[in-house]
Amino acid sequence: SRSIGLLHWAAIAWAAGEPLSVEDVEVAPPKAHEVRIQIHHTGVCHTDAYTLSGKDPEGAFPIVLGHEGAGVVESVGEGVTSVKPGDYVIALYTPECRECKFCKSGKTNLCGKIRATQGKGVMPDGTTRFKARGKDILHFMGTSTFSQYTVVADISVVAVTPKIATDRACLLGCGITTGYGAAVETAKVEEGSNVAVFGVGCVGLSVVQGAVRNKAGMIIAVDVNDGKEAWARKFGATHFVNPSKLQGKTIQEHLIEMTDGGCDYTFDCTGNVGVMRAALEACHKGWGESIVIGVAAAGQEISTRPFQLVTGRVWKGCAFGGIKGRTQLPGLVDDYLTGKLKVDEFITHREPLANINKAFEEMKAGDCVRCVVSM
Ligand code: NAD
Ligand code: AHE
Ligand code: ZN
Fold first, then answer.
1. I need a labelling partner for 329 at 20 to 30 A (CA). Which of 181, 182, 250, 279 fits?
2. Rounded distance between C-alpha atoms, residue 71 and residue 41, angstroms
3. Same domain, 13 and 142
4. Which residues pair with 317 in a beta bridge?
5. 174, 202, 263, 283: which one is catalytic?
6. By its UniProt entry, which Pfam families does this protein fall under (predicted)?
7. Neighbours of ion ligand 3 (CB under 5 A)
8. Which of 275, 303, 318 is the last residue of a domain?
């Protein structure tokens, strides 16, 4: 089937703010250094909703969204050596070429090789592999997992053991790895350190999980939804605070009191710029670090008194937790298989592809951690 375009279903976002349309799409064969994947399962992440809303400056339409997917390699283009047909794989929106300045720096997981074309919604050669209703359809985050078949660059995919089912593996493609990596890889939370996690959805619960792994001291979950307390405690949070119920003081003042001077590490997992400020200001003077994970809409900006930084607090951020997908995801899969990493627990909802709009609605309701879509 290498030379023919496959006709299958995809959820197409024809325009910002409109429901996705599940319809036939032609998926062209992979060109050189490309891989065609049969997606078995995909998660739905808030970033998909963010781009669909029209607030993402990089969002263009029509497009096949989705970036948290796992499946099986169907065919590969010329020159592909890292995966072969039949391999079980996870798609990587943060690729890893191992050749660019970024990959070689040893300082970041951000790979520069295809970032420009990825941001424009096209493959590295500037064209798209999707066609529907006679029109070219754009790719999303180099992955486009809301399609039964997708084509990705060979640096945007990692093979993993089939021992992990694809309905679990897909969640390592974004939410779980993002939060866990932020705690373990980016912040490198130390034993006994006090941590506050703002927003305990899939990403925040994963930060909690990483903090537990690194033996943090206090792990304070902060969420405006009281229903999240039980979830946070289940993942190992030691405290829970609902900031909307504090009387006469700010959440940063409250956390500073609770921790005798401020947290060693804080994480924003909300995408709210006011929360990002609170998270920075809740850090301990002299050394506290705040990690921005949430994605804020175009036009939003963060602010604080520069004095907060002058006095030693550090503001940083990460994408995909700072994890290098091809190098590190197989290890995370092993951790899952040996019971060291929770994954199953994140799945609260399931939908078939035909009901993907329902999956978006469920994601926005307060009782959903992750909805997994079967293709
Ligand atoms: P989610 O909606 O499941 O979780 C967000 C949580 O924040 C919810 O529990 C909500 O009640 C809580 N919240 C909202 N406003 C709050 C406030 N003012 N104070 C405290 N809590 C508040 O979302 P998610 O899937 O966990 O994603 C979280 C964010 O991370 C999103 O912005 C998403 O786009 C972003 N994200 C970033 C990366 C990355 O690589 N940087 C990867 C994945 C997701
Ligand atoms: N296109 C958006 C930015 C969105 C964004 O920051 N995406 C994260 C991943 S979120 C996953 O759920 C990311 O990978 N960022 C690094 C990068 O290179 O995009 C905008 O605002 O322009
Ligand atoms: Zn995501």
1. 279
2. 7
3. yes
4. 292
5. 174
6. ADH_N, ADH_zinc_N
7. 45, 47, 174
8. 318
What distances in angstroms separate CA 345 from CA 168, 171, 303, 336, one per listed residue? Answer: 10, 11, 36, 11
- In terms of domains, do 45 and 144 share one? yes
Six-digit token string for 107: 């300082």
Tell whether 326 is covered by a domain.
no
Told to judge if 97 belongs to the known catalytic residues of this protein, a careful annotator would answer yes
pTM recorded for the entire structure: 0.97
Do 40 and 149 have their domain in common?
yes
Give nearest CA residue, ligand 2 atom 5: 295
Please tell me whether residues 150 and 22 are part of one structural domain.
yes
Active site residue 263: no
Tokens 């866990």 belong to 180
Q: Residue 194 sits in which domain range?
A: 176-318
CA of 173 to the centre of ligand 2 (A): 14
Q: What is the ipTM of this complex?
A: 0.98
Query: Distances in Å between the alpha carbon of 25 and those of 9, 16, 52, 239?
Result: 6, 19, 19, 48
Which CATH number covers residue 115? Answer: 3.90.180.10
Tokens of 340: 């060291």
For the residues of 39-99, what is the DSSP string, one character each? EEEEE--HHHHHHHHT--TT--SSB-----EEEEEEEE-TT--S--TT-EEEE-SS---SS
Q: How far is the CA of 222 from the centre of ligand 2 (A)?
A: 23
Question: What domain count does the chain have?
Answer: 2
- 108 touches ligand 2 (CB under 6 Å): no
pLDDT of the chain, 375 residues: tens digit per residue: 344 566 689 999 999 999 999 999 999 999 999 999 999 999 999 999 999 999 999 999 999 999 999 999 999 999 999 999 999 999 999 999 999 999 999 999 999 999 999 999 999 999 999 999 999 999 999 999 999 999 999 999 999 999 999 999 999 999 999 999 999 999 999 999 999 999 999 999 999 999 999 999 999 999 999 999 999 999 999 999 999 999 999 999 999 999 999 999 999 999 999 999 999 999 999 999 999 999 998 899 999 999 999 999 999 999 999 999 999 999 999 999 999 999 999 999 999 999 999 999 999 998 999 999 999
Three-state SS at 120: helix
